[in-house]
Amino acid sequence: MARVLDRLNRGGRRRLAVATVAGVVAGAVAIPVAVSAVGSSLGSAAAATAPQISKPAASKTGPAPTVQVNQVGYQTKSPKQGTFVTKSESPLAWTLKDADGKEVASGKTKPAGVDKSSGENVHTFDFSKVAESGKGYTVTVGGKTSEPFSIGDNTYSQLRTDSLAYFYHNRSGINIDANLVGKNYARPAGHIDGAASSDEKVPCQPKVCDYTLNVSKGWYDAGDYGKYVVNGGISVAQLMSSYERTLHTKGADSKALGDGRLLVPEHGNHVPDILDEARWEMDFLLSMQVPKGEKLAGMAHHKVHDSTWSGLPLRADKSTNKRELHAPSTAATLNLAATAAQAARLFEPYDKEFSAKALKAARAAFDAAKANPKMFADPGDATGGGAYSDYDVKDEFYWAASELFITTGDKEYRQEVEKSSLHNDSEALFPDGGISWQSVGGLGALDLATVPNKLGDAGVKAAQKAVTEAADRYAAAAGKGGYGVPYAPGGSYAWGSNGQILNNMVVLATAHDITGKNKYRDAVTSGMDYILGRNPMGMSYVTGYGARYAHNQHHRFWAHEKDAKLPQPAPGAVAGGPNSSVDDPVAQTRLKGCAPAKCYVDDIESWSTNEITINWNAPLAWVASYLDDQA
């Protein structure tokens, strides 16, 4: 099963405004990228462009193409590059043709030698000068032709919508509406209605506590129906940050995330749809806090999931396994503190009562974590769900203190930020393998660098320097090898490598927002090219995007490979991607001796290479939104 082993590799291993929001201190330093204020116009549901449900063609099968391109397409003004797998060591002629077969451009490939990640000899080609919009473009090299792709300004508009719809699809405790997602993806609410499998009155594991909690909201984590505070934390933070970016960055479009624009059921409530989605998870995270009057009041339970592993396929409302709360942990508590502090400032214009509740919970959680700094999740607690164990919580303390400081301006939180050994240490905050659920200090650094706060000019510039230094490393990695991927994991690809690559792209995009330097934007673009087809597998890792895409990811409801009556994953779901450690039996059988970037198989049972999760889709949504803003 997907989590018999703790997913230690999922996120990569750790190396060692002047404010108008209530509770935010006036006089905060305005970050140089700031151009708009909280409460900027979002448009109404009546006036907004209605979101569309994607209906992609079936994925192609068969051998992968040797001419590898972004199978979705390229933005008009962006770099346009591809890769050709060949034994030739000499430049080769390439030709770009439009949908009618007319030659549009031509040139010579650039030999790049053997790409270490794939073990293959590759050439690259560049057609960036082509800026004519159109569909059905192809590139031919050495008698081999790429999959078709588009050039245009709306390359990532639908991906922004679909990648965010992933979270609605995976909500717990609510009917998933066919009017929003289509009849194939509609389903009754899961884990409610009072059964043993209900999340409305969940008991603790034996000897953990003697109370029950209603934890029925939130997002199902991945291929199973567990809900984890540590993984929910980084995921909801990135959704909120995607919106918060639009409040302070020139050219960012808050209306595209506004009321009536995304696939959520809360249309017409005058709250940005992306915050409605984040609210569903925040309500869950808040509900996981140990109640006042209990021994560990203020701490957060680490997770809730089935007492035993469930099989697949299985629709959420059909689950009968007993649900249990697991012991509180310091890491979970600090995830709650960080996200609740961020939510407090973002929701204040729309729901002052919730904003105040969130800030109160954040303060209580931070205090509780300081009083219990070494309550670690048991790595052996992996029956029925993943352990998500973490023995180093310096980064969680840094992230939580950063968010509380940004929101409140309080001196105590500033002191916590500045005394941390992580403060402004670029390599510690942003490891080469990327930020992850186990390495979240970078989330605090990104917000200190871009969200108005009281660090002062010198403090903000230092935070920005930490971001740009990391972005320089990621951009340099993108310039090496034959695929333009901003990832340098030291010879191996981690569990969830696609999520790590996307997290590196978030850092690059933020550096571009801060500096305006195109080298960072270009590295984001090449990273998305990799995700969408310019990779050694010659396929898009995002369901429904490209001619050849992942469509058998590990998921209990999206399990068409197991039951033809069930759907494939919804469009916009990103697969975990190559994993050098090949931790599941299917991967171990089919991927013996695989090169790092080819340790992937699109099989529903390959949970170590082909699962889908909230913490991988969150950076995909962030990056898709950023790139759509660049058009």
Structure description:
The two termini are 42 Å apart. β8 (134-141) and β9 form a beta hairpin. This protein has 15 helices and 17 strands. Mean pLDDT is 93; it is low at 1-27 and 32-48. α3 packs antiparallel against α4, α3 (229-248) packs parallel to α15 and α10 crosses α11. It has 631 residues and is α+β, with helices and mostly antiparallel strands. The longest helix has 23 residues, at 456-478. The protein folds into two domains: 73-152, Immunoglobulin-like (Sandwich), CATH 2.60.40.10; 157-539 and 610-630, Glycosyltransferase (Alpha/alpha barrel). The strands form five sheets. Strands 2, 4, 5, 8, 9 and 10 form a six-stranded mixed β-sheet that branches. Strands 1-3-7-6 form a four-stranded antiparallel β-sheet, with no helix packed on it. A three-stranded antiparallel β-sheet has the order 13-15-16.
For the terminal residues, how far apart are their CA atoms?
42 Å
Q: Which CATH class of the largest domain applies here? A: Mainly Alpha
* Rg, nearest Å: 23 Å
pLDDT < 50 runs, ≥5 residues: 1-27, 32-48
Mean pLDDT across every amino acid position: 93
**What does the main sheet amount to?**
6 strands, mixed
Would you kindly provide a brief summary of this structure?
The protein is α+β, with helices and mostly antiparallel strands. It has helices at 157-169, 178-181, 229-248, 273-287, 330-347, 352-371, 394-408, 411-419, 426-429, 441-450, 456-478, 497-515, 518-531, 585-590, 614-630; strands at 67-68, 73-75, 81-85, 93-97, 103-108, 110-115, 120-126, 134-141, 144-145, 149-152, 202-203, 212-213, 227-228, 300-301, 303-306, 323-325, 328-329.
